[in-house]
UniProtKB/TrEMBL annotation:
Domain Histidine kinase: 67-285
InterPro entries for the chain: 2C_sensor_his_kinase, HATPase_C_sf, HATPase_dom, His_kinase_dom, HisK_dim/P_dom, HisK_dim/P_sf
EC number(s) reported in the record: 2.7.13.3
GO cellular component, one term: plasma membrane
Lipid bilayer topology: Multi-pass membrane protein
Protein name, UniProt field: histidine kinase
PANTHER family: SENSOR PROTEIN CREC, SENSOR PROTEIN RSTB
Class of enzymatic activity (EC top level): transferase
Subcellular localization(s) per the UniProt record: Cell membrane
Taxonomic superkingdom: Bacteria
Keyword presence, ATP-binding: yes
GO molecular function, one term: phosphorelay sensor kinase activity
Length: 286
């Protein structure tokens, strides 16, 4: 009986480990372990084969889109040069906007596909330093983007043998994590671009606790309801207040994908003067 119970515990533990690995392996882009009992091994092999096919399809899509983007560059340049010879200024401006929208759409789909693949290696980084660098790029061209200190908050901690106590959250200088720096810069830039496009300014804050870090971008003047916010994280979705503003509706979808690849999520909240977007990231996802 003891041997049987030990075997059941071993199998149960193997399936529990498999479930945990299955829950996060797509973001880690690592194969599931193919061990344990025969049924578990066969399941892991099937899942790995499916994910490998799915990833190969994504990489092939990115390769095709990259080729299309490159091939469209030459005719788009010719169109732009020819449009410069059009005497009607209004017609010329409309044609140039169409060319910009066409190239932006291809580039946006390519960026979205690359974000889905998530091939960039994870590195140790300071989220505060990353945010400072991104904000400085906007300030260099006189755009209304500021970085403010996040309000202090306490984290709860405790053990099996002690009461839960409060401890200070990490300071700005300890906002360290493992992540994909280029992808995170893209995510923050997309949130800032949205804030500037639909509001009048962007205020960036970085915060965190022992398990998660987050970056928030708050605008001024953007008014969206909960239904709109849930819809806008999908691909090719734009807000009703976008009007004639440029864009193809992939910015927030890219941010949401990058957040998921870091074990996190994208959330929205109504601030006193506008909309607050928050990208939440796991500190030890990879």
């Amino acid at each position: 009986l003891a041997v049987l119970l030990g075997w059941v515990a071993e199998v149960s533990g193997a399936f529990a480990a498999f479930a945990r690995a299955l829950g996060d392996h797509r973001a880690r882009t690592a194969a599931l372990p193919e061990g344990g009992v025969e049924e578990l091994r066969q399941t892991a092999q099937a899942v790995n084969a499916y994910v490998a096919q799915d990833r190969a399809a994504l990489e092939n899509r990115a390769l095709v889109l990259s080729g299309v983007s490159h091939d469209l560059g030459t005719p788009a340049t010719r169109l732009r040069l020819r449009s410069a010879m059009i005497g009607d200024a209004d017609l010329r401006a409309r044609l140039e906007r169409d060319i910009d929208e066409m190239t932006a759409m291809i580039d946006g789909v390519l960026t979205y596909t690359r974000a889905e693949i998530g091939a960039e290696p994870f590195r140790d980084l300071s989220l505060t330093s990353l945010a400072e660098a991104v904000v400085a790029d906007y300030q260099d061209v006189a755009l209304p983007v500021t970085l403010r200190a996040a309000p202090s908050r306490s984290a709860r901690a405790g053990t099996l043998f002690s009461r839960t106590t409060s401890r200070a959250a990490p300071t700005d200088h300890t906002m360290l994590m493992r992540g994909q720096p280029t992808a995170l810069r893209r995510a923050l830039s997309n949130l800032i671009d949205n804030a500037l496009k639909y509001g009048r300014e962007a205020v960036v804050m970085v915060g965190g606790d022992a398990d998660e870090l987050w970056m928030t971008v708050t605008d001024r003047g953007s008014v969206l309801n909960g239904e709109d916010l849930a819809r806008l994280t999908g691909a090719f979705q734009r807000g009703e207040n976008s009007g004639a503003l440029p864009g193809v509706g992939l910015g927030l979808a890219i941010v949401s994908t990058i957040a998921a690849q870091h074990g996190g999520r994208l959330e929205f909240d109504q601030a006193s003067e506008g909309l607050e977007a928050r990208i939440i990231l796991s500190r030890r996802w990879a």
